[in-house]
Design goal:
Blueprint: E1 4-7, E2 14-16, H1 28-34, H2 43-51, H3 56-67, H4 69-80, E3 86-89, H5 93-102, E4 106-111, H6 118-124, H7 126-131, E5 135-137, H8 138-141, H9 150-160, E6 167-171, H10 174-182, E7 187-189, H11 193-200
Parallel strand pairs: 1-4, 1-6, 4-5, 6-7
Antiparallel strand pairs: 2-3
Helix pairs in contact: 3-4
């Protein structure tokens, strides 16, 4: 029996496309390199620092010192245009949240996101924030922790006041799924709203 569902934001509730922050501002090959899977430009590493509570005014000079002026221009542009990365809500998710709440299932948000840019996310999707029973944001609430850290999941469970045994966590990242399960939290990997609906509502 599922009494509570905790949802990741980016890639589950929200369609997040990081390249959109830089599209049209830099050559395609530079953008490809900036977001490359091997993290040759350090975007993923520094984005994780941002998610863990280092705000951009502190993070950007450190990035420039390590990677130089040209890449720092791209990182600054990403920070300045992060609103462009938030394309919209994922298909079927607003309806799923409404149906879960109608069944008496509480719905929560758990996101790796920066403290200083959280107002951008919340301002872009006010109806989503209102629909959720609560949100834990890593940069704001995590005290240096973020997914997939077990401590971050434990913090969220305590903050929400939910029982692990009757709670389901939904995320699109296998690393975050592993972290949740290591914390004793049942978890499924997100593919689409229909899959979560089948797991939670049986329809």
């Amino acid at each position: 029996m599922v009494n509570d569902v905790i949802f990741d934001f980016c890639g589950v509730l929200v369609d997040w496309q990081p390249r959109r922050a830089l599209d049209g501002l830099f050559p395609k090959q530079d953008i490809d390199a900036f977001f490359a899977d091997d993290d040759r430009c350090g975007f993923m590493y520094y984005d994780d620092l941002h998610d863990r509570g280092t705000d951009y005014p502190e993070l950007l000079p450190a990035y420039e010192e390590e990677y130089g002026t040209r890449l720092a221009q791209m990182m600054r542009a990403y920070a300045a245009h992060i609103d462009r990365t938030l394309v919209g809500l994922m298909p079927g998710m607003p309806e799923l949240l409404a149906d879960l709440k109608q069944r008496g299932v509480r719905v929560w948000g758990l996101t790796n996101w920066g403290r200083d840019t959280w107002p951008v996310m919340a301002g872009r999707f006010p109806q989503l924030i209102e629909a959720l029973d609560g949100v834990v944001v890593s940069g704001r609430d995590g005290d240096g922790a973020a997914k997939p850290d077990e401590t971050f999941f434990s913090l969220a469970l305590e903050r929400f006041g939910v029982d692990r045994a009757t709670t389901l966590f939904v995320d699109d990242s296998p690393y975050n799924i592993d972290g949740a399960r290591a914390a004793g939290l049942p978890a499924i990997r997100f593919v689409d709203a229909a899959g979560v609906r089948a797991r939670t509502l049986g329809a």
